[in-house]
Write a structure and sequence with these properties.
By secondary structure, the protein is of the alpha/beta class. Helix content is about 40%, strand content about 15%. Strands 7-6-5-4-3-2-1-8-9-10 form a ten-stranded mixed beta sheet. The longest helix is centred in the C-terminal third of the chain and has 22 residues. The two termini are about 30 Å apart. The chain binds iron/sulfur cluster.
Length: about 350
């Protein structure tokens, strides 16, 4: 497949900042229609947090990142606070450490934003647009959209000093609503967005074309003029080839797609296991290259449908990459992931 050789051409785009995610908890208030994280009812322990900080400490890099992923990490805010306190104590004086919180926004109240403001935090705020979209795709266990609470917290975040961007999930079925949702989100005052095309569904050629046309149209519109997309940063696309590591709640380290795509790709966990965190050396010595990552993906599929879906999302990513490389909307931003 020529497009795959093109995607793998050149050196691996390992970021200067060495990043490790922590699966803080599998619990979440929402039941997003596209969620691929399996409910396991478990949370990280202080021992796993300590081991994750030790793993980061073994890196040679001066720049490090500890990322809080879930589920909803803010449901275990005390654990998050513990992790930050320990990371600051052990690494704060010798390394430049950044924290990243991937959140659905429901619990991001004023007190928590005050906590984040005092630290070098980047918040990935999952937000798909208006209340109709949230009711259809991001309702809670009782079927409520929680849109008013989430939007209120997003506005509070916008008015704070905390660095953030909105992570917008789009599937082929809600593509027609994307222009409306992009305008809605930029109308709230969001300036940075990441478009997360659903990696668990098939993207056919016309869908990919519509996705690209929609983004191009938005970027050319008055509402899109001041918006940057993180998809445009460096080698961000296709997201399916990114090589981020995550520590699970039991202290096993995986390439992160194993966990956040587990429902759709049940074979991924076995293929993307790196090892037990306390047995591993430096993060930069154990992470996979993109080529190795792709090889493992191709071994992870349990049926032909999974392979079709995966290849289609690579094509969607490659199309976005072409769009952004010509849009002049590139930006220096951290490579990051979100549910
Ligand atoms: S996608 Fe994220 S916010 Fe939605 S249910 Fe899954 S973990 Fe929760």
């Amino acid at each position: 497949m020529t497009f795959l050789s093109d995607l793998l051409a050149g050196p691996d785009p390992f970021a200067e900042r060495v990043s490790v995610s922590l699966m803080t908890t599998y619990a979440c208030q929402l039941r997003c229609a596209y969620c691929q994280v399996l409910r396991r009812g478990v949370h990280a322990t202080k021992k796993v947090i300590d081991d994750t900080i030790s793993f980061l400490e073994r890196s040679d890099s001066k720049k490090l990142e500890l990322k809080f992923f879930g589920g909803e990490p803010l449901l275990k805010f005390n654990l998050m606070r513990y992790a930050v306190r320990e990371a600051q104590r052990r690494l704060g004086k010798t390394r430049e450490i950044q924290y990243c919180l991937v959140t659905n926004g429901i619990s991001l109240d004023a007190a928590k934003i005050r906590f984040l403001e005092k630290l070098p935090f980047l918040v990935v705020f999952s937000f798909d647009g208006d209340s109709i979209t949230h009711a259809a795709f991001r309702a809670d266990a009782a079927g409520r959209a929680r849109h008013r609470t989430i939007t209120g917290n997003l506005k509070r975040l916008i008015n704070s000093k905390t660095d953030f961007f909105a992570n917008i999930v789009v599937s082929p079925e809600n593509l027609p609503a994307l222009p409306r949702n992009l305008r809605y989100i930029s109308g709230l005052g969001v300036k940075r967005m990441q478009l997360c095309y659903n990696g668990a569904v098939l993207w056919n050629g016309p869908d990919i074309m519509l996705l690209v046309k929609t983004i191009a149209g938005f970027l050319g519109s008055p509402a899109g003029k001041h918006i940057s997309f993180l998809n445009a940063a460096g080698e961000s696309e296709p997201v399916a080839l990114k090589t981020d590591m995550i520590t699970d709640t039991d202290g096993r380290v995986y390439m992160d797609g194993a966990i956040f795509m587990e429902r759709r790709f049940p074979g991924a966990r076995k293929c993307f296991l790196i090892g037990k965190i306390y047995e591993l050396g430096k993060p930069e010595d154990v992470r996979f290259s993109r080529r190795e990552h792709l090889r493992r993906w191709l071994n992870a599929f349990t049926c032909a449908e999974e392979e079709k879906i995966f290849i289609s999302t690579l094509k969607a990513g490659a199309a976005l990459r072409r769009l952004f490389s010509g849009s002049g909307k590139g930006m220096n931003a951290p490579r990051t992931s979100a549910p």
